[in-house]
Amino acid sequence: MPYQQPDFPTRKRPAHRMRSLRLRADRILSPSLRIPHEAEFRYDETDPLVVSLALRTPEGSVVRWMVSRDVLFEGTEEPSGIGDVRLWPSRVRTRRVVLLRLEVQQMSSLFEMDLVQLQRWLEETFQLVPPGTEFDHIDWTTALATLMREG
Fold first, then answer.
1. Is residue 62 within 8 Å of residue 48, measured between CB atoms?
2. pTM reported for the whole predicted model
3. CA distances from 55 to 37, 41, 131, 138 (A)
4. Strand residue runs (E) in 31-73
5. Average confidence (pLDDT) over 77-87
6. What is the dihedral of CA 40, 43, 49, 51, to 10 degrees?
7. Sheet holding 62-68, edge to edge
């Protein structure tokens, strides 16, 4: 989702930890035409439910998306996601890849990335915040107060 989600405050942690991964993401325009982009995935334990994805075009502009970490991981193993973010594993000859389709206002782009690198990086994020414990990292009192003020 390319729209900024509200930041939920997190419980105090002894050290701020973040993981990032840069890899090549080929935008697929046709079976024989691909445009290389740089993809940077960032995971910050202070926002434990999402991964920030920045796609840098060859011209240098950057497009940012927020993607559920669960949807991203599931997409490395089986088709995952609904709406504007969908992922699924595939093979190109002997290479394992993940395909990522991003859609906004009836326009979409399809990207191909190395599946193994993404899986390894996601495993590192699970060491920071194990699956199923994400909500333990949110300061619910402050989050609720923030939502009440905005309402």
1. no
2. 0.80
3. 6, 9, 25, 28
4. 33-44, 50-56, 62-68
5. 94
6. 0
7. 62-68, 50-56, 33-44, 18-30, 107-114, 95-104, 85-92
